[in-house]
Amino acid sequence: MFTGIIETISQVMALQKKKNLYVFKVAAPKMFNDVKVGDSIANDGACLTVTSMKGGCFEFDLMKETLDATTLKHLSPGKFVNLERAMKAEARMGGHFVTGHVDAVGVIKKIKTLPNYVEYRISIPQTLMRYVVPKGSVTIDGISLTVGEVKKDWFAVYFIPHTLEVTTIGRKKAGDEVNIETDLLAKYLLKAKG
Question: CATH code for 8-85?
Answer without folding.
Answer: 2.40.30.20
